[in-house]
């Protein structure tokens, strides 16, 4: 693909609405990420680093 | 040279007519292990690589260079430099041959890359740039110093590369055959495994704690960063899925490799991950020039937070791990000036651990995306296959783990007379790790042709990157680094 094509493609790309599967992916990633982070933070609190 | 053409390791070999006999990934494992094994000969009282060149802080150029081992001291600094160049030229030319590159072209290009990069490193070690303490200033007879430490030379190598890329693009094109940051940093990371093992051996509990905390990095990069960046790219900037997925992986996971793995997994056109990779390299340069100094200023009292933060915020292996090296030097220097002398290796080890943990899961994440894309979004007969996880697994991590385990065994599981020689042996291997870091920094600079990249029309991609990186990634990375690493200090030296 030539360089002007990329510029044009990025500028004129037709909008693609988020599909339900994409929304699920984003929601599941973020949700599970935050839950796991809280779990790890609790583990970190109750099992502090040993020196 | 186009930044696009060379940011991707895949694209770097596109000039060859047939596929390489071996991947850069496996080659890095082989070369790293060869250096590691040769260094271990010290355990049998045979010094095989002590001739490698090292550089000290200097005010008299004649005293700048030396050999890694006193055994080879008669060689002198210039002799060591020449020997190192010849050895690397031979080994890397053989690697180029295995990769089916033009060996003659590679040898000429590597000659330029090596000498310019190493000269930049030597300049960076000049006392007025590198001396840190008042005692050093007095010893070297200089009135002031930028206090960048010896490893500030990495910044000089990066700047030299940037100048070549942006002022002498034709020369950059001429030497592109040897501009291979991914190969150089992977070799360095394989060697780093042994170095980290020796560092960890003295404080195994602390090292285990750091490893466990590395898990937090995976969650952040894959589950939190990726989802947010993908959402921003799709919803706020209107990118389609083919662009948004590699962009999200490039910004949130591990730059070049993640963008390429994701692009392939979702069956995107090859140009897309390559463009994203170019962008990642450019931003990594900006980050490496800024973040270590911010870390020194604001996080010097929390050294491991700083190390983890660099690993989470800088998005290529090369820039992140080498940036961890700079951060370590700057923080150790500042701490020493305040009267606290930490053992070296822990900050860099934390950065590398975080990065390696993130890298391990690239293949799995790419498979998950590939599965969703080929089954639910662009339904195709070319479904994602489980074997792709292994195909996309970064093999250099196996080298890192192997040198780490062997180093740990030698340091902890052998008789005292053998174990006492392990730090010396690993120290010699580490000399090459530093040299590969220098080559990495210089190469990243040479790949960063800002003007060219802008002409290629990726301003909108860059906007997503700026907003995600500076508005989100570095701050969340800082919070998580603080959450998991604050209060954990490296052991004191001595």
Structure explained in plain terms:
- The complex is a heterodimer of chains A (about 50) and B (about 500).
- Chain A is mostly helical and about 50 residues long.
- Chain A has helices spanning about 5-10, 20-45.
- Chain A contains two helices and no strands.
- Chain A is elongated and about 55 Å long.
- Chain B contains 23 helices and two strands.
- The longest helix of chain B has about 35 residues, at about 205-235.
- The termini of chain B are far apart.
- Residues about 1-15 of chain B have low confidence and may be disordered.
- Chains A and B meet through helix 1 and helix 2 of A and helix 11, helix 17 and helix 23 of B.
Name a few traits of the molecule.
heterodimer, A: 51 residues, mainly alpha, 2 helices, elongated, B: 494 residues, two-stranded antiparallel sheet, 2 strands, 72% helix, disordered N terminus
Number of H/I helices of chain A: 2
Largest interface: A-B, 33 and 44 residues
Q: Kindly, what is the distance between the CA atoms of the first and last residues of chain B, rounded to a whole number of angstroms?
A: 49 Å
What fraction of residues of chain B sit in β-strands?
A: under 5%
Uncertain residue ranges of chain B: 1-16
- What Rg of chain A, in angstroms, do the CA atoms define? 21 Å
**SSE-based structural type of chain A:** mainly alpha
Largest sheet of chain B: 2 strands, antiparallel
Q: Report the helical percentage of chain A.
A: over 70%
């Amino acid at each position: 693909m030539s360089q002007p094509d990329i510029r044009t493609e990025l500028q004129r790309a037709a909008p693609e609405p988020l599909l339900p599967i994409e929304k699920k992916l984003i929601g599941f990633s973020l949700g599970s990420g935050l839950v796991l982070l809280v779990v790890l933070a609790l583990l970190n609190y109750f099992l502090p680093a040993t020196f | 040279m186009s930044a696009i053409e060379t940011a991707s390791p895949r694209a770097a070999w596109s000039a060859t007519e047939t596929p390489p006999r071996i991947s850069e990934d496996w080659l890095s494992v082989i070369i790293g292990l060869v250096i590691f094994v040769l260094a271990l000969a010290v355990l049998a009282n045979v010094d095989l690589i002590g001739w490698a060149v090292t550089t000290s802080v200097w005010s008299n150029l004649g005293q700048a260079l030396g050999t890694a081992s006193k055994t080879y001291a008669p060689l002198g600094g210039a002799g060591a430099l020449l020997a190192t160049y010849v050895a690397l030229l031979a080994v890397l030319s053989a690697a180029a041959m295995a990769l089916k590159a033009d060996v003659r072209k590679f040898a000429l290009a590597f000659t330029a890359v090596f000498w310019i990069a190493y000269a930049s490193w030597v300049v960076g070690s000049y006392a007025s740039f590198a001396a840190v303490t008042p005692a050093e200033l007095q010893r070297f007879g200089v009135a002031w110093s930028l206090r960048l430490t010896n490893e500030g030379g990495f910044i000089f190598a990066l700047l030299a590369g940037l100048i070549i890329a942006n002022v002498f693009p034709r020369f950059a094109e001429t030497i592109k055959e040897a501009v291979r940051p991914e190969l150089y940093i992977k070799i360095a990371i394989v060697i780093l495994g042994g170095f980290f093992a020796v560092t960890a051996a003295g404080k195994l509990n602390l090292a285990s704690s750091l490893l466990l905390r590395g898990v937090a990095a995976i969650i952040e990069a894959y589950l939190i960063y990726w989802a947010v960046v993908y959402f921003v790219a799709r919803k706020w900037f209107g990118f389609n899925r083919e662009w948004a997925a590699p962009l999200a992986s490039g910004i949130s996971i591990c730059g070049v490799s993640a963008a390429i793995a994701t692009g392939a997994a979702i069956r995107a056109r090859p140009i897309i991950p390559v463009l994203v990779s170019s962008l990642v390299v450019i931003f990594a340069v900006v980050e490496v020039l800024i973040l270590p100094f911010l870390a020194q200023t604001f996080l010097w009292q929390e050294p491991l937070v700083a190390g983890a933060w660099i690993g989470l915020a800088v998005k290529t292996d090369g820039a992140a791990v080498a940036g961890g090296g700079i951060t370590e030097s700057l923080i150790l220097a500042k701490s020493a000036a305040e009267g606290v002398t930490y053992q070296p290796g822990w900050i860099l080890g934390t950065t590398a651990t975080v990065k390696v943990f993130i890298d391990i899961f690239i293949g799995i994440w790419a498979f998950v995306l590939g599965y969703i894309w080929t089954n639910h979004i662009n339904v195709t007969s070319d479904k994602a296959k489980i074997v792709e996880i292994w195909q996309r697994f970064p093999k250099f991590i196996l080298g890192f783990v192997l040198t780490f385990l062997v180093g740990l065994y030698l340091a902890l599981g052998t008789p005292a007379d053998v174990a006492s020689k392990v730090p010396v042996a690993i120290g010699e291997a580490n000399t090459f790790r530093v040299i590969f870091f220098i080559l990495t920094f210089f190469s990243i600079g040479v790949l960063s042709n800002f003007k060219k990249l802008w002409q290629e029309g990726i301003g909108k991609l860059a906007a997503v990157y700026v907003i995600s990186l500076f508005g989100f990634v570095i701050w969340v990375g800082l919070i998580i680094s603080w959450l998991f690493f604050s209060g954990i200090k490296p052991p004191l030296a001595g």
